[in-house]
Amino acid sequence: MDIVKIRVAIKKGNVNISEHADDELENDAINDDELYHSVSHGEVIEDYADDKPFPSCLIYGRDKNNRHIHSVWAYSDEHKIAVLITAYVPDPEKWINYKIRKPKR
Fold it and tell me: N or C: which end of the chain has fewer CB within 10 A?
């Protein structure tokens, strides 16, 4: 997944936030500015090229206060729109350096 396409869509306001993502943002007290900052300065850590209806990816970044944020985005090349599937503050017990999933026990 090309993170640049997601960043451009965000800058243009071509974003659709799923109801689930909206709930998760509220649960973890992540506002739009914090989310978008984490994407603007983040990186793709997992790629889900076979997702339907659009390919998606997991982005790791930090907000301006250095809080770790994960967000899953899909992107439609046809419509040039980024779709936020979910976003959350990752659990350090489940991640190595917030970028690599720890093996399940």
Answer: C
Provide the whole-model pTM: 0.94
User: Domain range for residue 79?
Assistant: 3-90
φ, ψ at 101 (rounded to 5°): -65, 135
| Number of independent structural domains in the chain | 1
In this structure, how many other beta carbons lie within 10 angstroms of the beta carbon of residue 78?
7
User: 87: alpha, beta or left, given left = phi > 0 and alpha = psi -120 to 50?
Assistant: beta
pLDDT in tens, 45-79: 999 999 999 999 999 999 999 999 999 999 999 99
Strand 56-62's sheet: what is its strand order?
Answer: 15-17, 81-88, 68-76, 56-62, 43-48
- Find out whether 73 and 66 touch, Cβ atoms under 8 Å: no
- Alpha-carbon distance of 57 to 97, in angstroms, equals 18
58 - beta bridge partners?
Answer: 46, 72
